[in-house]
């Protein structure tokens, strides 16, 4: 048994991934291991049952697997017989080579590819075709950069010809659920709204004062009045952390905050902020700050540390912005996705010594950031 899935199951695995079924590397390896142990052998029905047991976690996913086996017709019997004959002939050749070790010992050593001779196993007199090996190399090009656009991201000029399949699952810095739990830690309980909750202490005082109580004393219920403005850097140097920014956007409605808004900027907050990470729908920066006056401010940016560059002008302009923002926001935190050891000697190192604390993005520092936003230093 090989260490890869047969074509039928490999095609099904790719189809499930394309349909959004959450199968990953572990599911692929489970299929290989199950086949190695003898499961799913015999006919298509056995393969179908195996795939349904391994990868079908709901009725809809099992229906997808069933349709895959129903749509694909079984292979022709003559084709199967031809493949079996070829495999039997190859096995016979292998057994003959094993049974005659003397021939193997007297065989001359094949020259290495560097010497220009044939590869091991090639026919005598044959030359090595190095075009396939050269085609497997991927050419990497860098997108053009312009002033203030950030670090250009390397991109493949052409898809490499690789004969192996890889299933890559993204690993976010923090899941939307965990991020929502962190937002719920950010609370400022206040009472406002209709008086629907009984105030026991006030009711007893009224009873003792009057001697007669017509109705209980009520008060508004407590609710979370915490407000938050997030300013996220959407420059090219922040491309590796776009999934984290998407997690921020997805988790905000789950945080049960009184009001929360996410705005984007390019490298540093200048005169305009944007509603999307593609820097669309601009709005005046000062207008956004005034609208969220009294809320907490969270800034997410590498602050130049991803490029390892030091731009003193950018640091001074950012410090001026933070000084202006402190007039509107009683608490503010800067989250930097780069580790703290990479800040020294960069623009981030200068900004980190300013009035707003800068923290790296990990679980302990995210908790600390929430505490700072709550006013707990």
Task: Describe, in plain words, how this protein is organized in 3D.
The chain is flat and about 100 Å long. α3 (44-55) packs antiparallel against α4 and α8 (176-185) packs across α10 (242-251). α13 links the parallel β10 (331-336) and β11 (358-360). The protein starts with 6 loop residues before the first helix and ends with a helix. The chain has helices spanning 7-18, 25-36, 44-55, 59-71, 77-99, 101-106, 131-135, 176-185, 200-210, 242-251, 285-291, 312-325, 347-352, 363-373, and strands at 140-142, 154-156, 189-198, 218-224, 227-233, 259-265, 272-274, 282-284, 296-300, 331-336, 358-360. The chain is α/β, with parallel strands linked by helices and 377 residues long.
Largest sheet: 5 strands, parallel
Distance between the termini: 60 Å
DSSP E strands, number: 11
Question: What is the name of the CATH class of the largest domain?
Answer: Alpha Beta
What portion of residues is helical? 40-55%
- Strand content range: 15-25%
Mean pLDDT: 76
Structural class based on helices, strands and sheet pairing: alpha/beta
Strand order of the largest sheet: 6-5-9-10-11
What CATH architecture label of the largest domain applies?
3-Layer(aba) Sandwich
- Low-confidence parts: 101-130, 132-150
- Gyration radius, to the nearest Å? 32 Å
Shape: flat
Per the CATH scheme, the topology name of the largest domain is: Rossmann fold
- The secondary-structure element order is HHHHHHHEEHEHEEHEEEHEHEHEH
């Amino acid at each position: 048994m090989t260490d890869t899935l047969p074509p039928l199951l490999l095609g099904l695995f790719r189809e499930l991934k394309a349909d959004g079924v959450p199968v990953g590397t572990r599911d692929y390896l489970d299929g290989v291991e199950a086949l190695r142990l003898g499961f799913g052998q015999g006919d298509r029905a056995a393969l179908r049952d195996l795939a349904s047991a391994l990868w079908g976690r709901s009725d809809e996913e099992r229906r997808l697997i069933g349709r895959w086996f129903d749509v694909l017709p079984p292979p022709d019997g003559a084709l199967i017989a031809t493949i079996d004959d070829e495999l039997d002939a190859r096995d016979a050749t292998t057994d003959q080579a094993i049974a005659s070790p003397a021939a193997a010992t007297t065989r001359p050593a094949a020259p290495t590819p560097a010497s220009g001779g044939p590869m091991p196993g090639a026919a005598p007199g044959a030359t090595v075709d190095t075009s396939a090996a050269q085609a497997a190399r991927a050419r990497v090009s860098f997108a053009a950069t312009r002033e203030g656009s950030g670090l250009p991201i390397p991109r493949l000029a052409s898809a490499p010809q690789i004969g192996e399949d890889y299933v890559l699952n993204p690993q976010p810095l923090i899941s939307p659920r965990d991020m929502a739990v962190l937002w719920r830690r950010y609370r400022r309980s206040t009472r406002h709204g209709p008086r629907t909750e009984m105030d026991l202490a006030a009711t007893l005082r009224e009873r003792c004062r009057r001697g007669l109580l017509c109705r209980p004393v009520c008060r508004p219920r407590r609710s979370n009045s915490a407000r938050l403005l997030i300013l996220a850097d959407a420059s090219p140097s922040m491309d590796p952390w776009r999934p984290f920014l998407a997690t921020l956007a997805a988790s905000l409605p789950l945080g049960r905050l009184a009001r929360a808004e996410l705005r984007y900027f390019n490298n540093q907050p200048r005169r305009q902020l944007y509603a999307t990470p593609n820097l669309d729908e601009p709005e005046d920066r000062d207008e956004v700050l005034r609208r969220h006056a009294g809320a907490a401010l969270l800034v997410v940016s590498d602050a130049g540390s991803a490029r390892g560059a030091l731009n003193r002008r950018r640091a001074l302009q950012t410090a001026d912005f933070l000084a202006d923002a402190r007039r509107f926001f009683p608490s503010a935190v800067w989250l930097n996705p780069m580790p703290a050891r990479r800040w020294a000697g960069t623009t981030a190192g200068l900004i980190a010594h300013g009035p707003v604390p800068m923290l790296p993005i990990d679980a302990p520092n995210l908790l600390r950031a929430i505490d700072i936003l709550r006013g707990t230093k």
